[in-house]
Amino acid sequence: MTTKELELTANSIRQTIIEMLLEAGSGHSAGPLGMADVFTALYFEVLNGKPDQPTWPDRDRLVLSCGHICPVLYAALAYRGYFPRSELKTLRQFGSRLAGHPHNLDLPGIETSSGPLGQGLSQAIGMALGARMGDKKWRTYAILSDGEHDEGQLWEAVLFAGKNKLHNLTAIVDRNNIQIDGFTEDVMPLEPLADKYRAFNWYVLEVDGHNFEEIIAALRHARAVFEKPTVIIAHTIPGKGVDFMENDYHWHGKPPKTEEAQKALRELRTLRGKIRSEHE
Amino acid sequence: MSKLTYLCPINQDYQHMLIPPRDGFGEGLVEAGKRDKKVVALCGDLVESVRMQPFATAFPDRYIEVGVAEQNMAGIAAGLSFTDHTPFMASYAVFTPGRNWDQIRVSICYSQANVKIVGAHAGISVGPDGATHQALEDIAITRVLPNLTVIVPTDSIEAKKATLALAGHRGPAYIRFGREKNPVVTTEKTPFIIGRALKILSGHDVTIIACGQMVARAIMAAEKLQKELSVGVINLHTIKPIDKAAIVEAAKQSGAIVTAEEHQINGGLGGAVAEVLAEEHPVPMIRIGVRDRFGESGEPNVLMDHYGLGVDDLITAVKQVNQRKKHAR
Known about the structure:
The complex is a heterodimer.
Chain A: H1 3-24, H2 30-34, H3 36-46, E1 61-64, H4 70-80, H5 120-133, E2 140-145, H6 152-163, E3 169-175, E4 178-179, E5 182-183, H7 184-187, H8 193-199, E6 203-208, H9 212-223, E7 230-235, H10 258-269
Parallel strand pairs in A: 1-2, 2-3, 3-7, 6-7
Antiparallel strand pairs in A: 4-5
Helix pairs in contact in A: 1-3, 1-4, 1-10, 3-4, 3-9, 5-6
Chain B: E1 18-19, H1 21-35, E2 39-43, H2 53-58, E3 63-65, H3 70-81, E4 86-92, H4 101-110, E5 116-120, H5 138-143, E6 149-151, H6 156-167, E7 173-176, E8 182-183, E9 198-201, E10 206-210, H7 214-225, E11 231-235, E12 238-240, H8 244-254, E13 257-264, H9 269-280, E14 285-290, H10 300-306, H11 311-327
Parallel strand pairs in B: 2-3, 2-4, 4-5, 5-7, 6-7, 10-11, 10-13, 13-14
Antiparallel strand pairs in B: 1-8, 6-12, 9-11
């Protein structure tokens, strides 16, 4: 895909996220919108997978540790063809395969279960170790939130991956600076985050999480790193693409109401008033 | 002295043959590793005392030292299981499942990860290390988790069989055993099937349903009482899935039940048996276990007696419940 096509795909995914959250009536807005570009880059440019064969043994694995941003994962999977897009609006409903937090047994393309923070990096490490023990070439990607770095388990995992030189593992941190109770640096300061990872023997890259060239270059760069796991700190804007949601931590854990959703969709469809929407 | 008729092969010399059940686990794990390359082992800085050293020596490429990090260990084990490995992860029971229950719940049980959780040094008989290291709640917190099989082998031979059975069993499981030498009740010929209670003695007056080293004590109590009461003994090595049929059959045959476990009386084997009886066939029942309190430092046998887990405590309970049976209804 060209960068332009990736941007348009991410924009469509953002609109879908707003529609899913409106229909669900609960869920998280800021994180999924902020990570739409990273997920688009992963599923449309980087991950080696077969949507019609989701358990293909040689696929790359993606572990979503911060399960609460799953609307972006579900939307990316559906856009990539893992399951019908029509199912996306069943998010969080009784009988749906799209649980409020992802469950590996429910939906094609979901590798693990997550929700309680801090667990995904350990799961991803197990997969990366398993690949190494079995001499497999596929890679494991772990998506982490910045807020979940408050969890002790995450640092147990960071220590372990450094010790074991898991160069087939790439972690991507959604560095959006917010968590439920406020800004990360007020709730529990994480900086200097890059230095912390370096001190634990990781290879660190930092990118603008809304710049496709940077995101994709970093994900490819990580494949060439030897004898160290790589962490890509993706600086993202929570609520990206919707003006009144951007950088406001109150949007971390709530969905838009009908009028807010309409406003958000109008903004996304017109690329902030730059073009006329076909819906207008 | 024994004239009792055993319902399965039993080691007649059990009172003098004392081996730590963890030794059986260690042997079983090596054997499982030989049979199946997919078996891998993880340990949290306790490789010798949980008896994983023989496996680590035999299969260094399949042994993973996690350090003192039980939460991480549970997640890594889950991830390994998704790459078609069969991980056994071990620490002391107070740390796994004690320290990492949420990780066991979400990363392992909810996800149906094929992980075998090994809780060593369980029970009050850990002794001098004191209350912090005496796991007395682990059965309760594991048996409430959906998808999780919970096994408490009675001795080293059964621990070995259970380990091998779990290596071939698909799905999450927890196995717990103590630190100390304890009587080897079973023999190589004694059957072991996950989920099937082992009927050792049949009793018309009272049946003792026990797990772990309390099975040997239950047999001793039955032998001592044989002139006055007919006492049955069941080794309920699988707490979950529980063998309801065996429990109900014993309740119908004896009309009274005593449970015995090296665990809190609340929520463990006694609780599980009580749940079955209350719904299926209520009979008078007494639970033997640690009575809702923390342990303390001391020599294992001193603690077992002090906390009401001795053979005499079982004998008293059997007599009491038999009396209560007469007054019931």
